[in-house]
Automatic annotation (TrEMBL):
SUPFAM superfamilies: Actin-like ATPase domain. Its main location: mitochondrion. Belongs to the KAE1 / TsaD family. This is N(6)-L-threonylcarbamoyladenine synthase. It is an enzyme of class 2 (transferase). Homodimer. Its cofactor is a divalent metal cation. It is found in: Mitochondrion. One of its GO terms (molecular function) is tRNA N(6)-L-threonylcarbamoyladenine synthase activity.
Length: 355
């Protein structure tokens, strides 16, 4: 079959992104404009500011993506856009741009689930195209979600676990803020990247035993994540031990917190992988980990060891494709287009779209 090219547009949170991807997995162009200068002074993402930022930046970002790929809108086979979940004032900026472009140029429009896009990105970036094959297990860890799923096919998911309270990225962001960590200039990932950097100079021992292990006391087979207790304990301990007064303590706390997070994730993943391997159904082909938090090198190496101990491959997209980007939306659009899943020009946003 003839290769197709799709434009992907993403404005669900604080990154304004557009990219053009070909169905053989080649990224023809990729443009991401963050909004660090808008949100860092506010201590986090402010939805109305983010929406304004998208309005200002998106036309230029789309033009740049087309120019870099050396194509025009007429060359595109479809236009894909994040329809949800995401911030209510932000999603319509991308969706309306995509609908108008598609309608004016008579192109198929594809509304994409943001988390589906994080999951399917692994099939664009692995060395074997369209691998991992379905079904695979995926852990999606981002600022808004902590989801463990079995992916049976495009649009066909079994949820295995979600979080009872905060997403892991949310807990990371709150902790980074409580530790007063500055975002790293020119690096994606905002507070999460700052926390990872701080932890490099520390070790977990000083605080490890003082942090609660989420949900360990409860039924050990409970398949749910919980991060709010850990986050609250960290914030309290930061005050009690006067952590901010000593840069070494800050690094040690960052390290202990990251360690507690990954131990909790590992514990749930182990249960899920053990259950999955026991089941007689089609064996899962891989463990895919994606979403902004999956760009963390420490988490990636711990998850690599876990996957190896279960003898299944770990597939993580490269860090810059784990955080929000347009290529993942374009790729999910390609997978949906090839499955015959196209939308009307009348679709609206779905800020709380369940997967
Ligand atoms: O997927 P994403 O870019 O946006 C959402 O869909 O939410 O994920 C953003 C989240 C934020 O919580 C950010 O702090 C976290 O991913 N993050 C990281 C790192 N880079 C981004 N967390 C830990 N370590 C990182 N290197
Ligand atoms: Zn995301």
């Amino acid at each position: 079959t003839r290769p197709v090219i799709v434009l992907g547009i993403e404005t669900s949170c604080d990154d304004t992104a557009a990219a053009i991807v070909r169905s053989d997995g080649t990224i023809l162009s990729e443009v991401v404009k963050g909004q660090q200068s808008l949100h860092e002074p506010m201590g986090g993402v402010v939805p109305t500011l983010a929406s304004r930022g998208h309005s200002e930046q998106l036309p230029g970002v789309i033009c740049q993506a087309l120019a870099q790929a050396q194509v025009t809108v007429d060359d595109l086979d479809a236009i894909a856009v994040t329809r949800g979940p995401g911030l209510p004032p932000c999603l319509p900026v991308g969706l309306n741009a995509a609908k108008t472009l598609a309608a004016v140029h008579g192109k198929p429009l594809i509304g994409v689930h943001h988390m589906e896009a994080h999951a399917l990105t692994a099939r664009m970036t692995s060395s074997l195209r369209q691998h991992p094959a379905f079904p695979f297990m995926t852990l999606l860890i981002s600022g808004g979600h902590t989801l463990l799923l079995t992916v049976n096919g495009v649009g066909d998911y079994d949820a295995l676990a979600t979080t009872l309270d905060n997403a892991v990225g949310e807990a990371i962001d709150k902790t980074a803020r409580a530790l007063e960590l500055a975002w790293i200039k020119g690096r994606r990932g905002g507070p999460g990247a700052a926390l990872e950097q701080a932890a490099l100079n520390g070790s977990p021992e000083r605080y490890e035993q003082l942090l609660p292990m989420p949900m360990l006391q409860r039924n050990k087979s409970t398949m749910a994540f919980s991060f709010s207790g850990l986050k609250t304990a960290v914030v309290r301990l930061i005050e009690r031990d006067n952590v901010l007064a000593d840069p070494q303590k800050v690094s040690d706390m960052a390290s202990a917190f990251q360690t507690a997070c990954i131990r909790h994730i590992e514990q749930k993943l182990e249960i899920a992988l053990r259950n999955e391997i026991k089941m007689a159904g089609k064996p899962i082909s891989a463990l895919v980990v994606s979403g902004g938090v999956a760009s963390n090198t420490f988490f990636r190496s711990r998850l690599q060891s876990l996957a190896s101990s279960f003898d299944i491959p770990l597939v993580c997209p490269p860090p810059q494709l784990c955080t929000d980007n347009g290529a993942m939306i374009a790729w999910a659009g390609i997978e949906r287009l090839q499955a015959g899943l196209v939308d009307d020009y009348t679709i609206t946003t779905l800020p709380k779209w369940p997967i």
